[in-house]
Amino acid sequence: MEKFGKSQPITRVEDQRFLTGQGRYVDDIVPDDALVAYVFRSPVAHATIDQLDVSDAIDMDGVALILTAQDLKDAGVSMDLVGATVKNRDGTKGASPARPLLADGKVRHVGEPIAVIVADTLEQAKDAAEAIVFDFTEITPHLDLAIGGEEIHEGVAGNLAFDWAMGDEAAVNAIFDRAAKTVSLEVGDNRVIVNSLEPRGCYAEWDGDRLHLSVNGQGVWNQKNRLQQILQLPAEKIRVTNPDVGGGFGMKAMTYPEYYVVPVAAMTLGRPVRWMADRTESMLSDNAGRDFQTDLFAKVLMGTYDVQHAFLGVKGIYTNTTQVDAYRGAGRPEAIYVLERLMDRAARELGVDPFELRRINFIPNAAFPYKSATGELYDVGDFHRVLDHAMQTADMANYATRKADSAARGKLRGVGICYYIESILGDPSETARVEFNDDGSVSIFVGTQSNGQGHETVYAKFLSDQTGIPMDCIRVIQGDSDRIAKGGGTGGSRSVTTQNTATLATVSKMIDAFVPYLADKMGVDPQEVSFDDERFRASASNLSPTLIEAAEMARADGREDLLVHEQTTTLPGRSYPNGAHIAEAEIDPETGVTQVVKYSVVDDFGNLINPLLAAGQVHGGIAQGLGQAITEHVVYDEDGQLLTATFMDYAMPRAKDMPMINLEFEPVPSTANLMGMKGCGEAGTVGAMAAVANAVQDALWDQGVRQADMPFTPHRVWNMLNGAKDA
């Protein structure tokens, strides 16, 4: 690893400003003369709009503008937030109904934006919203994950968005028909609200020629492309920036109506306009996570197990609830959760130890590279070694003693394992640009966007390791479409792998460019010049300049071409982080209170760039997975009203809910990138849900509970226990 990173646990340099209140978030940097936007949202889940009258509201004090769907259409704005279309199993296209920026003739969920009021102050905008006349005729909402109900989108029969499949269904069914025993399990994957620390927000400014949108997103390029399409502006007329961002988790990677209506308001008024959601507004309008009722899922469908015959069918259902999209893990937690719950159920029904059943079915080491049933090419793996390490770390040899101790205190104790694997997703290409500045500093321009992961530390340290440039001289530049022409943004645990690969290539290009210039200075042949990650050297010369010194020499000689270097790289394949999570849960049968009391993880992230930050990512991911399993639960009533729209009703995990996490690493270097690393940003969540759920199911099994579904809140667990007694 000497050439590709020192693997030092460097603390985060950006935390100095974050922890002292010096962060520069969207709401900190809005122009002083910005007006305030407030969104008037639907109070009902499903209705036709009979009247929308803003005439009284527009005349109220301080109100500068009110925009409705009709206003946007009159201004020539493209109203549709076009989404991806899924192909049905019969080859036809799935449904692709329009998603209007503002409700147009109909509302489809509580919180859907109907109008945007722009005023001098937020209080004035809210007062004006109270004066809007909104008459509607309610329609029975469709809330169930099932085909049927009142039509939500015109022409979408049964509210079926798509019916997608992969694999040979007939072949798989034939295998099941021949099997001596089959095991089936249907599990629910409950809906969660993302709840990033910083809610969504943006501001827009228009100087009469160019638009600037500052938004707390996960990359600027998708937003810029969408602004071009919706506002019909040429690319050179648009600048998008991402300042500091307080959490994203996939939710902030997506497009939302406010990011286009606020720019329209700024362009209409010729004044900057700001918008920031409050917490309940976010809960009503942000993309939610999960909400699946599944038997199996895709990409890592068969996980780490040597199964080559698989079939997957998925139906997407439109409901009158807030839209669902990617949330930390984006498909991999859903897939692994169902698979690992099924493995535990199979172990119970077959009378096999759940750890041993996994061993029996692991892909053998000799089979790598291994092509999975879904077409994924796993490059490397040593699942037996990782599991051995995890069982030792979890002290499984003494589990029976801990279980007996819990029983002596009147508690039920269970242990659960999840052996996960995930595929690192996202754009495989990335660009790095390194510039030597007049003041002696060096800037590295990156195509990813930190949401709090520590990118400034990782990228600066990595560049320092490869070049000898002092870390405190390096500035990481991100999130500005004017300064960085292209990038893949942040998501799918891609950032460090793709960006540092591009940095390696840029450094190599930079060294190659300096060698002939310095060879002339040294009076030697270019082939005699070498670079050792700190200095250029040649045996026949006393000169041994650092890169900073070489750049100063080039600047003095007018060689501006040597002061900027850029390279784009594309990864040849994905990497596949994997590992074992082992959780122990303790349940009070009198109250249903469930606590995770012991948690151990062994992860294979390949070569580690910064072990400290990797551990932080795992800890945070486990907190989100445990939160979904134990405390978080989205509830709608029969009318589609969100009953969990504040932190009084929606239980985020707190410190008391979290166990101490015993985390160790068992690296098997990836062959899919030069660093041998595997992404780690989402792994904690991917493994946590099933580990906790299996532990709870284990604790409840001997009490007669055969179906334990998340979330394991006290009331739900108490009902499970009492339902089993009644049965």
What is the share of helical residues? 25-40%
Count the helices. How many? 18
Integer average pLDDT: 95
Distance between the termini: 59 Å
Main sheet specs = 7 strands, mixed
Share of β-strand residues = 15-25%
Question: Which architecture of the largest domain would the CATH scheme give at its second level?
Answer: 2-Layer Sandwich
CATH fold node name of the largest domain: Aldehyde Oxidoreductase, domain 4
Q: Radius of gyration over alpha carbons?
A: 28 Å
DSSP E strands, number = 26
Structure, explained:
- By secondary structure, this protein is α+β, with helices and mostly antiparallel strands.
- It folds into 3 domains: 29-139 and 197-247 and 251-285, Aldehyde Oxidoreductase, domain 3; 327-425 and 575-726, Aldehyde Oxidoreductase, domain 4, CATH 3.30.365; 426-570, Aldehyde oxidase/xanthine dehydrogenase, molybdopterin binding domain (Aldehyde Oxidoreductase, domain 4), CATH 3.30.365.10.
- The protein is built from 18 helices and 26 strands.
- A 7-stranded mixed β-sheet has the order 3-5-1-12-9-10-11, sandwiched between helices. A 4-stranded mixed β-sheet has the order 17-24-25-26, with helices on both faces.
- Helix 16 crosses helix 17.
- The longest helix is centred in the last third of the chain and has 28 residues, at 495-522.
- The radius of gyration is 28 Å and the shape is globular.
How are the secondary structure elements laid out?
Blueprint: H1 15-18, E1 35-41, E2 47-53, H2 55-58, E3 63-67, H3 69-74, E4 106-107, E5 113-119, H4 122-130, E6 133-138, E7 160-167, H5 169-178, E8 187-189, E9 201-206, E10 211-215, H6 221-231, E11 238-241, H7 258-269, E12 273-276, H8 279-285, E13 292-294, E14 311-317, H9 332-350, H10 354-361, E15 370-371, E16 377-378, H11 383-393, H12 399-408, E17 412-421, E18 429-436, E19 442-446, H13 455-467, E20 474-477, H14 495-522, E21 530-531, E22 536-537, H15 547-556, E23 564-570, E24 578-587, E25 594-604, H16 611-630, E26 661-665, H17 683-701, H18 714-726
Parallel strand pairs: 1-12, 10-11, 19-20, 25-26
Antiparallel strand pairs: 1-5, 2-4, 2-6, 3-5, 7-14, 8-13, 9-10, 9-12, 15-16, 17-24, 18-19, 18-23, 21-22, 24-25
Helix pairs in contact: 9-17, 13-14, 16-17
